[in-house]
Amino acid sequence: MLHLGLGSFHRAHQAVYLQRLIDAGDARWSLSGANIRPDMADVVAALQAQGGRYTLETVSPAGEYRYEEITAIREVLAWEPSLASVVARGAAPGTRIVSFTVTEAGYYLDNKDKLDLSFAELAADVERARKGESGGDNVTVYGAVCAILRARKAADAGAITLLNCDNLRHNGDRFRAGLLEFIALAGDTDLLAWVNANTRCPNAMVDRITPRPPPELRARVQAATGRDDAAAITGESFIQWVVEDNFAAGRPEWERVGAELVASVQPYEEAKIRILNATHSCIAWAGTLVGLNFIHEGTHDAAIRKMAFDYVTDDVIPCLTPSPIDLAAYRDVVLDRFGNPAIRDTNQRVAADGFSKIPGFIAPTVRERLAAGASIDSVAMLPALFLAFLQRWHRGALPYTYQDQGMDEAVAHAICDAADPVLALCSDAGLWGHTAGDARLVDAVRRASERVARFVDTQGKP
To answer: Which member of 20, 65, 118, 161 has the lowest number of beta carbons within 10 Å of its beta carbon?
Structure first.
């Protein structure tokens, strides 16, 4: 398997499942890892120096620490502008799966699930592909995968599975549609036909809270294990992976080590995205507004916990019922996980990318509740919190740098500068699709914004 994206999440999740399989005696599969952009250079260099080995620290809600050496990544490919080594590994006959971890904004999809060519890096990738070129400083996942598939076709290396390992809803289906559109825009009709016949793109749901490694982690790992590990990572003890069993050229027997291979991941991904991901953002935005730094602090604040609990109970559970999952129990487990003080997950990390999270994690619940003629008072708290958070960003009053790959800063400032910021936020089609401007949405978010203002005043913090 070749994985694109050597960040903490992949190394705390997909690589761990393969490690478990290797530990169970099945060593038929291994991982090669690479980044398609020149980021995380220190981590990549450390992984190369350590032969792909690194330590995973996990912490349970009860505060139990475990340390495990992960050796499943057998090859670490250094970034270079042409991506030649990445393309060669992906085109090798022995590579049967190319997987990747991409943020929601990294798919460059508009609200109709078409590629948004207003992003310069995406347009540049299409142009490079049209010329038969690859690489560059800001390659997109489409450009990288297109180059791999073009080389694979030329080498007659056989069918391959393209596997998403991220939080995008219907990720396999939507990535496949974006990839086919990208290849069509590049004008490569032969490759388009080959990809249609020789690739599969399973949908998948992934779950493990994996904060950015804190500065003190390296010393903690050395004290516990004796290893000086420059690429150590930390995460919660909980882990889940649900994968649609739709592979083109074989796969590891992940089901032997706890992964769920299913006919459809939809009920699992909807529960995870709406209950875990959206609630995570709710707590991060609310916590930031009252001067908190970490997710566990907000989860233990009674007012913030109630916002998250009511959002799930009042609006999400009715939308997702019936479900094969005990949704109320899942809600409670999620809040327990968020309350784990040892994880020390920052509000800065979780608050990021609101302009992708509103349409991806929150708007579907709003649309379905409105279609049912039901109240949206509880879910409306989330966009109201985001608006208050965005207004802090607009004034330069956030305590940290806000990162949002899907945000057009001019649009965001215009929302905050508007005579009626609530109306401006609720009228943004990129956030709400066909629900944008709906009077019921505007009214609910306006009332929710008043509750947010009272909440901030009551807390008596910045």
So the answer is: 118
Show the 3-state SS of 200-229. ECCCEEEECCCCCCCCCHHHHHHHHHCCCC
At residue 433, what is the residue type? G
Q: What is the CA radius of gyration of the chain?
A: 22
Q: Are 73 and 33 in contact (CB under 8 A)?
A: yes
Residue 225 CB-half CA count within 13 A: 19
Cβ(115)–Cβ(176) below 8 Å: no
Tens digits of per-residue pLDDT, 353-364? Answer: 999 999 999 999
End-to-end CA distance of the chain: 48
pLDDT tens string 1-36:
999 999 999 999 999 999 999 999 999 999 999 999
Tokens of 374: 């039901």
Tokens of 360: 């991806």
d(CA 333, CA 293): 22
| DSSP code string of 2-18 | EEE--SHHHHHTHHHHH
d(CA 141, CA 70): 26
Least Cα distance to 275 among 223, 218, 198, 327 occurs for: 327
**Residue 263 pLDDT > 60, yes or no?**
yes
Dihedral angle at the C-alpha atoms of 6, 11, 12, 18, nearest 10 degrees? 140
The pTM of this model reads 0.89
Three-state SS letters, 302-338: HHHHHHHHHHHHHHHHHHHCCCCCCHHHHHHHHHHHH
Q: What are the two backbone dihedrals, phi and then psi, of residue 64, each rounded to the nearest 5 degrees?
A: -85, 125
Q: CA 330 to CA 326: how far, in whole Å? A: 6
- β-partners of residue 32 are 2, 75
Q: How far apart are CA 345 and CA 338, in angstroms?
A: 9
pLDDT surpassing 50 at residue 462: no
Residue among 216, 223, 213 at smallest CA distance from 42: 213
Q: Which helix (H) or strand (E) holds 429?
A: helix 429-432
Contact indicator for 260, 277 with CB cutoff of 8 Å: no
Which tens digits make up the pLDDT trace of 116-165?
Answer: 999 999 999 999 999 999 998 899 999 999 999 999 999 999 999 999 99
Residue 114 identity = K
